Amino acid sequence: MFPRLTRAIALGCSGLSLGVLLYYLSRVPTAHIHTSDVLMIGLVTGVLGTVVLANLNTAIKAVHLTSAGIAVRTLFGTRALRWQEVEDLLDLPHSLGLRGAEGRPSIGFAKGSYGFALQHFEDLRATILRNVQARLHQEWGHLPLASEPTYRLPSLSALQWGGYGGTAALLVYGFILLPLEVGFFGWECVASASLGGLLLSPFLIRDLCKTRRRLVIRPAGVFQLDGKPQHISWPDLASIHVRAISAWVGSVELTGGSGVRIVVPLHMSRSGEFLFLVETQSDVTPSVG
User: Fold this and answer.
1) Does residue 120 form part of some domain?
2) Each residue of 85-135: pLDDT tens digit?
3) In this structure, which of 56, 81, 92, 135 has its CB flanked by the most CB atoms within 10 Å?
4) How many CB atoms sit inside 10 A of residue 246's CB?
C-alpha cells in the first residue's frame, strides 16, 4: 500500500473535492438552464469526479504477493497474475510492468517521489524479478531471429481518443453552440470551426497511420514496415533511449549512426521482449530519462 500519510492526504483531497462538487451542484439553478450551463456542469463534474476517484484509488490500492503469483487491488477491481502466466516484463529503474497473455491483465508500478510510491518498492521489485525474470529471459534468448519476431504498434488509447474528442467538442461549442445561443452566429463561426478541424485532422491522421506500422527484428537489425519503411542494422545502432513516465507509459527511441530514428511506444504489446532482444543483439546499454 501507499504510506499512511499519503493515504490520509488522498482521502482528505477526495473528501474535499466531493464536498466542492456537491456544493457546486446545489448552487446550479434548475430553471431556465441553457446549453452552456449543461456543458459547464458536465465539465466541472468530470474534473472533480476524476479527482475524487483518483484519490480514492490511491488510498485503497494494495499489492498481495504469494508463492503462486501477484494480485493488485484497486478501487476498480482486482487484477491477478500467476507467475507462470506472465508473458511480458518491463524492468526500468523507476518502474516495473507485468503482462499476461495478449497483454491482459496489465500491472504496473512506479517509484515516485514525495511519498507517491508503494511501500517497500525495492522489495516488491526484487520479489517479482526473482519469480519471472530468469524464465522470461531464457525464453526470449532462445527466440530464433530467423523467424522474424513481429510487433504491431498499438491502436490509439482511450486517453488519445479523449483528447481528440474533447478538442473537437470545444471547437463545436465555442464556434457553433455558443454563438447560436447568444445570437451572433455567422459564416465566420463556421469558417473558424472548419479551420480548427483542418488543423486537428493532420494530427489524428498521423496517429492513426502510426497504428498500422509493424516492427520486425531480423538477424540484420530492426526493420519498421508499413507507413515509412526504414531500418537500423545492429552495427549501426548507436543508442537506445527510454523515456518512461511510469510502467507502460513512455517510449523507446532507437537511433542509428546514420541518423535514422525508430520510436516505439512502451504500451506496445510485448515491448519488454522487444527491448530485451534489441539490447542483447546490439550490445548497446539503454539510457533512461
Assistant:
1) no
2) 999 999 888 888 999 987 788 888 877 644 445 557 788 888 999 999 999
3) 81
4) 17
Q: How far is it, in rounded angstroms, from Cα 85 to Cα 101?
A: 7
Q: Is the residue at 126 inside a domain?
A: no
> Running DSSP on this structure, what letter comes out for residue 157?
P
Kindly state the helix (H) or strand (E) to which residue 240 belongs, with its residue range.
Answer: strand 237-246
224's enclosing H/E stretch is: strand 221-225
Residues 149 and 256 in one domain: yes
Query: What amino acid occupies position 6?
Result: T
Cβ 249 vs Cβ 110: under 8 Å: no
85 is a domain residue:
no
282 and 165 within one domain: no
Q: Judge contact between 153 and 265, C-beta under 8 A.
A: yes
Residue with cell 523515456: 243
Q: How many domains does the chain have?
A: 3
Q: Where in the sequence is the domain holding 269, given as residue range(s)? A: 145-153+213-288
- 228 shares a domain with 182: no
